[in-house]
Structures are given as structure tokens and as C-alpha cells.
Amino acid sequence: MNTYESLAELVDETLCQPSGNMRQHNGDCLNRLCNKCGVDKVQLSSEIDESTDVIWTRYEYKNVHQKDGSDIRKIQLVKKEIQASEMIAYFKTLLQTFPAHEFRSKWQTQQQKHLLSTLPIGHCIAIHDYSENYKCIAKEEIQAAYFQRVEVSVHVTVLHRHAALETDGHDSTEDNPSIITEQFFVISPDPKHDHHFTHTAQGLVIDYLRSANSDFHTLHELTDGCSAQYKSCHCIGSFFISRNIKLVKTTMY
Ligand SMILES: [Zn+2]
Question: pTM for this structure?
């Protein structure tokens, strides 16, 4: 029976050790296709009585009902009170996919750093995501009585672009690169995070990049894997072609 100092130590227990000069775990082990390792290798302390009830919290997606009758899926911290055995079983289901997920995430971070350090002139990087919806509250209480509270969506883009003389006072060159990082927020009363919203936000980002740097011609977009709105054909294709922008898409997990 073991106690683990960290999650990394526990995850390591469920994987075969890298052999020879390999620094990475084998792909089959990470994807749980290897029959020599797996989640069953985890031995939890015998001090845990699996039949007792435990109180714990976990993040879950919940449908939150809106005033206009629609539902929005939001991630929330939910309190649980169930048997320890059920909590351990749930933890093991997460462990099934965690190593592959973590590996991809690390790999993508490395790729992003590499892209940033070697970004060709004329290229920009945009990392898109939606924030949770926000409620606007009037600053003065008296106003709150007159105006209905408006819920807004916030679309966030982190931009990395080469500096341009006309905008930044100096040029970025191949020999002396200067990367400018900016945050671009699109705030709208439209609560739906659909492809129409994404399309509009992408258009605004591109128009801004064009105005900031006339050399801009290629956009590297990094988005998360669950955002269906970024995969829609409405967000790619003719939209970028009509603006004469080359698009390179990377999906993050
Ligand atoms: Zn293995």
C-alpha cells in the first residue's frame, strides 16, 4: 500500500517506465493500450475505509436556466457526499485519460513556445477562448432600479504579433525580432457562444491585426478542443480567403 506525494508520482505508478534513452513514456502506455500497466496499479492506503461517506467537490457542467428561457452550460464546483469507494472509482476513470491529455497539453505548450520563438515576419498567433458570461450591474444603486441587468459574453483572444513601425514605433525584423503580446476582448450582449459570435470576433481580430501591421498575412489560431464553434466551416474557408489571410489552425485539448 502506498501514499503518494504528488499527482505526478501517482500517475507514474500507472505507466511503464520509459526504457533505454527514452525520456517520454510509450504512446501505448499513455493511451492505456499497454497490458503491462494501467490504473489498477494504483494501490491506495489501507487506512481508507471505502464504505464510509466522504464529502468532496468536483467540477461538473451544469445547465443554468436563463431569464430568456434558454439554457447555458456552465462549469461549476459541485459538493458530493458519497461512499469513498465511489469517489475512488471516479478518480480512476479520470486517471484513464489523464496521462494522454497531460502529454498533449505539454506538447502543445512546447509547440506554442517554439512557434513564438521562430515566428516568421508577417505571421501572428491568436489564442481564442470564451469566458464565462458576466452580469453587468449599474454602479449607482439608483440606476439599477431603472435599468435591467444585462448579461454579456466575453470572447478573449491573446495575440502575439511582430512589432510594426507605424503602430509600435519600431519594426520587428528577422535578425532582431520584437514580439508584441496583447489581449483582445469582444464584449457582446449575445449570450450564445455560437459560430456567428466567433465569426464576428475573428473578423474584428483580423481587422485589428491588419491595421496594426500591414505585413500581416498568416494567422496561427490556437483553440480548445471542445469549442465546436471554432471547428465550424463558417469560421474558416471563404472568410479568410476573402481577406487574403492564410489560416493555420491548432486545436488544444
Ligand atoms: Zn505500459
Answer: 0.66
